[in-house]
Design a protein that fits this description.
The structure holds 2 protein chains of 2 kinds. By secondary structure, chain A is mainly alpha-helical. Chain A contains 15 helices and no strands. Chain A folds into 2 domains: about 45 residues, no CATH class; about 270 residues, MetI-like (MetI-like fold), CATH 1.10.3720.10. Chain A is elongated, with a radius of gyration of 28 Å. The longest helix of chain A is centred in the middle third of the chain and has 37 residues. Helices cover about 70% and strands about 0% of the residues of chain A. Chain A starts with a helix and ends with a helix. The longest helix of chain B is centred in the first third of the chain and has 36 residues. Chain B is built from 13 helices and no strands. Chain B has a single domain, classed as MetI-like fold (Orthogonal Bundle). By secondary structure, chain B is mainly α. Chain B is globular and about 85 Å long. The two termini of chain B are about 10 Å apart. Classes of the chains: A mainly alpha, B mainly alpha. At the A-B interface, helix 9, helix 10, helix 13 and helix 15 of A face helix 1, helix 5, helix 6, helix 9 and helix 10 of B.
């Protein structure tokens, strides 16, 4: 488009208008070559392409803006994350403060909007604080797995041959375990705890992440433009950084976003089995597990931590679905 | 076809080997000496050395692995630290109980999920598709252990129509499928267990059916004058391989991944055994259960691969 812009004012000149010198000067083409002259309507008519072409990210945001469902759920996710971060500011009570008389009270009891737990601690405050551990354990393993699995997959897919076979066959071994089982096995053998839980979940997510990155890389590698880049003298690191990464990050990002909800579910499951954080630290899975004994006393209060897990998980899932549709990534 | 079957089986062997390596190393990623749990705390260095030698812990790791593998192949998984019973017995009994759950959960989940997905895919974009897609997202995002607790609260605590936990009334020995007093214990765990696979299957089937419907051959079928029902049959058949792959995975999850559900309902299956082993730090049971379950999973995947190639000859040539 910029190339033609200098021609058009010249054409305009034929119509008898005075051509400003600036129109022919390449230094002034920053404005898309559109220069305000008296023949402006004609100029714009000619200079504008038939349809406005959007860039990739522009079209992604355009599609997202027209997807109210995704936006609403994204806002909810954001609120949950914010609540967890600002827990000390918004929690009405100290999440560790116990009360012997105020144990297992129903909703709305003496200023405790969501009741109290088996040690008389405020449920709402514990749920807000619990989000910190649960979200952390949902996000960190996915980040670690994207990094390691993504790198392994790109390396394997780009190098190809025996290296790729070796990497992918090793991953196949971990694929042979159902994910819950592998997480429980590793965390169980290492003796639980938050760090071990995150490590176990990362190990669970690395193989599928690696497969996603490998598939995308192998497809890209066979395309002509990689050949062209190499022929024009680009180094391997340059090709990977500009051409491979640019095309692989999309699928990896989308897959990672879909894993967040799985990770939150699995992490809470580990805590539920006693393999996550240790009491008295508030965590949704652990709270659900300890409150399970009290379902005959305050059934609704006991279901609350699970409701928090469910809401977070479904919002993350819907946002991920929306992102996938907007970014038009096929997995 | 026979060559393909043989090749798939040969492929499965290194996987099974790798799985056993991972299970073997579980003992070694456990913090502390693996002997610590069995030895009395006041044991002298000499006794420890003798026991170490007796168990073969003083040999190089690869040797230890081969010895362990040799025992496992002959069905000797060691002895449970908690109960002193052979791990093999514990695991096989538990697996039978889990299979009982799966026997009902699998048909329920596969049928419901498949029908939901097929209907949604055939009416992609219509209101029924939205309803099914929404329901499927709920199924996928549900923490099933929480769903179990909620079901217990509703049906056992509030309405008291179904038992909360366990497998059969107290004092009963064998599970009798002909008696409601036994069967009622199955209802809640089976529904809970089926929920996630229903969501996953509905999503997969919907995507597969919607994709196949967009292919050119469907247009050709319509142009040939086939009835809508006949077209749908062709579409469903073509979407089947994709759906079956996911069904295989879900079958494995129902067998192995039921740990949380079984813990909620204290159903004495493999998952409950596993969670008990974790609480007791009973590493032989942990190792044995995980090995057996993952080998079942590997076998399931193999069978699914073979079934897929039966339906879709294109897979055989790849």
């Amino acid at each position: 488009m910029t190339d033609y812009s200098s021609v058009i004012p010249a054409k305009a000149g034929i119509r008898g208008d005075e051509v400003p010198a600036a129109a022919l000067d390449p230094r002034f083409r920053g404005n898309g070559g559109v220069i305000k002259t008296r023949s402006e309507p004609f100029l714009e008519e000619q200079a504008a392409p038939a349809t406005k072409v959007r860039g990739y990210w522009e079209s992604v945001f355009h599609r997202l803006r027209r997807d109210p469902v995704t936006l609403v759920f994204a806002v909810i996710v954001l609120l949950i994350v914010l609540a967890a971060i600002c827990a000390p500011l918004i929690a009405p009570f100290d999440p560790y403060k116990e009360s012997i008389v105020g144990r297992l009270k129903p909703l709305g009891w003496r200023g405790h909007p969501l009741g109290t737990d088996e040690l008389g601690r405020d449920m709402l405050s514990r749920l807000i604080y619990g989000g910190r551990v649960s979200l952390l354990m949902g996000i960190v393993p996915v980040l670690i797995a994207s990094l390691i699995g993504g790198m392994l997959g790109i390396a394997g897919g780009f190098i190809g041959g025996r290296t790729n076979t070796a990497v992918m066959r090793t991953m196949d071994v971990f694929y042979a375990f159902p994910s819950v089982l592998l997480a429980v096995a590793i965390a169980g053998a290492m003796g639980g705890g938050m760090a071990n839980g995150m490590l176990a979940l990362s190990l669970v997510f690395i193989p599928p992440m690696c497969r996603v990155a490998e598939t995308a890389t192998t497809q890209i590698r066979a395309l002509d433009f990689i050949e062209a880049a190499r022929a024009s003298g680009a180094r391997t690191t340059t090709i990977i950084r500009y051409h491979v990464l640019g095309n692989v990050l999309g699928p990896v990002f989308i897959y990672a976003s879909s894993l967040v909800s799985v990770s939150i579910l699995l992490a809470s499951g580990l805590s539920f089995l006693g393999l996550g954080v240790r009491p008295p630290v508030p965590d949704w899975g652990l709270m659900l597990s300890t409150l399970r004994q009290s379902i005959y006393v305050v059934p609704f209060v006991c279901a609350l931590p699970g409701l928090a897990i469910f809401i977070t998980s479904i919002c993350c899932n819907l946002v991920s679905d929306g992102l996938r549709a907007a970014m038009d990534v096929r997995m | 076809m026979i060559r393909y079957i043989l090749r798939r089986i040969v492929y499965a062997i290194p996987i099974a080997f790798g799985v056993s390596v991972v299970c073997f190393s579980l003992v070694y990623i456990a913090p502390g000496d693996p002997l610590q749990t069995v030895m009395p705390p006041d044991a002298t260095a000499e006794t420890i050395a003798i026991v170490k030698h007796a168990y073969g812990f003083d040999r190089p790791l690869p040797m230890q692995f081969l010895i362990w593998l040799g025992r496992v192949v002959t069905g000797d998984f060691g002895v449970s630290i908690a109960t002193r019973r052979p791990v093999f017995l514990e695991v096989s009994e538990a697996l039978a109980n889990t299979a009982l759950l799966a026997m009902f959960a699998v048909p329920l989940a596969f049928f419901t999920g498949y029908v939901m997905g097929a209907v949604a895919g055939s009416f992609a974009g219509r209101w029924i598709d939205r309803v099914v897609t929404g329901a499927a997202v709920v199924g996928v995002s549900l923490p099933n252990y929480w769903l179990g607790i909620v079901l217990v609260i509703v049906f056992a605590v509030e309405y008291m129509v179904l038992p909360a936990t366990g497998m059969g009334p107290s004092g009963s020995t064998a599970f009798n499928l002909a008696q409601w007093s036994n069967v009622q214990f199955l209802v809640l765990p089976v529904i809970t267990l089926a929920m996630i696979p229903i969501g996953i299957l509905a999503r997969t089937t919907r995507a597969a059916v919607a994709e196949v419907r967009n292919q050119d051959f469907v247009q050709t079928l319509r142009a040939k004058g086939l009835s809508e029902w006949a077209v749908t049959r062709h579409v469903l058949k073509n979407a089947m391989p994709q759906v079956m792959a996911v069904m295989g995975l879900q079958f494995g999850y129902l067998l192995g991944g039921s740990i949380l559900v079984e813990t909620v309902f204290t159903w004495p299956g493999s998952g409950f055994l596993l969670s008990k082993a974790i609480i007791n730090r009973d590493v032989p049971v942990l190792q044995g259960t995980i090995l057996v379950l993952s080998l079942v999973f590997v076998t399931t995947n193999l069978v699914v691969d073979l079934l897929q190639s039966l339906i879709d000859p294109r897979i055989r040539r790849a």
